[in-house]
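In the design runs reported in the main text, the only information available to the sequence generator was the tokenized backbone. The following block is the verbatim input for one such run; it is reproduced so that readers can re-run the procedure and compare outputs position by position.
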């Protein structure tokens, strides 16, 4: 028996996230897409595996997962924050093997290589090397981490190594993305309360394809408040496939 397979949606989580981070979105796209949330080792269903600390290893891990799940139907890659940065690399690699997605959807991230943001982070220091007091304040500023996790020693001890590993992935070789320019179109989303949302057009520098963006109300984790709008973006993109 031959089944009518769906298009695929691969989701790349934010720092500290896992395969359950996009559960809020699933019911909104499930009728049109095979919903495939990916996760790096050391969390979620892969808790018993060793954490990764290197960007290249993380990209390779995601590529391996995607290739194991591809069904030859068109697909979209969506990444939030850390997932957006790694998503750019993943799409670049998928293009190299002639299996480009329909679109790269990115959120909570103004794109790599913005000089003033890099300089700001250099002055502040790398998050993954901060002491716990500084690190917790950084997490509070970023948002999305419940205060009870930061104040509970046991919970913080559980999430701390995961978060630090993810920030280490992001904060080493921060200029590596500058050399990437994909053919796949990009759709960018950011929250109205994110300090860097005025720089969202920076994503246009990383694609030869179409570029669109939208600002939605909310902070860095605005995505949790707008599952319907994010789903509408993804569902609309499947009808605007630009062959590259």
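Verbatim output:
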């Amino acid at each position: 028996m031959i089944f009518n397979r769906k298009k695929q949606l691969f989701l790349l989580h934010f720092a500290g996230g896992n395969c359950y981070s996009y559960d809020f979105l699933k019911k909104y796209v499930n009728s049109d897409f095979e919903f495939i949330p990916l996760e790096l080792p050391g969390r979620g269903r892969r808790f018993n595996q060793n954490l990764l600390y290197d960007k290249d290893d993380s990209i390779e891990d995601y590529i391996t997962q995607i290739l194991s799940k591809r069904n030859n139907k068109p697909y979209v890659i969506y990444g939030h924050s850390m997932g957006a940065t790694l998503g750019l690399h993943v799409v670049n690699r998928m293009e190299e093997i002639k299996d480009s997605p329909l679109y790269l959807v990115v959120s909570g991230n103004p794109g790599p290589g913005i000089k003033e943001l890099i300089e700001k982070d250099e002055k502040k220091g790398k998050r993954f090397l901060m002491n716990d007091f500084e690190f917790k304040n950084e997490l509070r500023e970023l948002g999305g981490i419940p205060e009870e996790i930061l104040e509970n020693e046991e919970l913080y001890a559980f999430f701390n190594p995961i978060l630090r590993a993810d920030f280490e992935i992001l904060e080493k070789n921060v200029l590596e993305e500058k050399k990437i320019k994909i053919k796949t179109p990009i759709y960018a989303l950011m929250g109205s309360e994110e300090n860097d949302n005025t720089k969202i057009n920076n994503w246009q520098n990383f694609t030869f394809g179409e570029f669109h963006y939208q600002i939605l109300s909310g902070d860095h984790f605005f995505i949790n408040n707008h599952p319907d709008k994010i789903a509408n973006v993804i569902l609309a993109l499947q009808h605007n496939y630009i062959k590259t």
